[in-house]
Amino acid sequence: MTRFALLAAPLAMTAYGITRILGRLDGDYGPGADWQIAHLFGLAGMLLFVPVVLTLRALIPGTAARNALTGVTLAGLTATVVQFSADMLLALAAADRTELRTLQHDFSDLPGIQLAVYDAGPLLFFLGIVAMAALAAAARHLPWWSPAVMLVAVILPAADLNLMPVTGLLMLAALYPLTETTPPAGTPADDEQRRTIPA
Questions:
Q1: TM segments (predicted)?
Q2: I need a surface site. Which of 21, 169, 182, 186 has the fewest CB within 10 A?
């Protein structure tokens, strides 16, 4: 499952980005099938990042900071899962794009939702996974360039959401070395049997 998640999670994000772009070509994106398929890819990608985060956690030396960082990253993932799920459910309830926007506005107006689900929440995941990649690289379980690639990956959609396909591919590149060096998620970071990336 770990190796599958390391490959499938970023590829699902690429699929989300591509489907979103294709759905917007006719200027009528949402609440139809293109919206739902794109968001299904996005939701699947976020869920698949859970074992990825746990794998990175296992590669970081055991400290309270590691546990806190893991918690923050998973909290960000939870916010993103809620966002994708809500967008899909609201689309099912909407008759057209105008009604979808109204329903989204009503949902985001609920106390705390805009901040937790749309603004700060998802940011915690993206910042957290960069930090976890950096700590895994410091422990020589990832090459030095992986955190840099991961950082570029998470910055791109903030500049333009249409760059999400590239984000997925860059995240795949950053995580790919783990597909050959990582034991199952949850193995302690100090396991002497774990292989590390050569210096």
A1: 41-60, 72-95, 115-137, 149-176
A2: 186
Per residue in 81-114, pLDDT tens? 999 999 999 999 999 999 999 999 999 999 999 9
pTM (two decimals): 0.88
- Which residues have CB under 8 Å from 42's CB, separation 6+? 12, 13, 16, 84
Q: Would you say residue 192 lies in a domain?
A: no
Return the structure tokens found at 21.
Answer: 């772009």
User: Does residue 40 form part of some domain?
Assistant: yes
Interaxial angle between packed helices 2-24 and 33-59, expressed in degrees from 0 to 180 and rounded to the nearest 10: 150
Residue numbers of the domain that contains 20: 2-181
The torsion region of residue 112 among left (phi > 0), alpha (psi -120 to 50) and beta comes to: left
C-alpha 179/C-alpha 186 separation (Å) is 15
pLDDT in tens, 39-61: 999 999 999 999 999 999 999 99
Pick from 43, 8, 79: which is nearest to 35 by CA? 43
What's the domain count of the chain?
Answer: 1
**Both tokens assigned to 75:** 């909290």
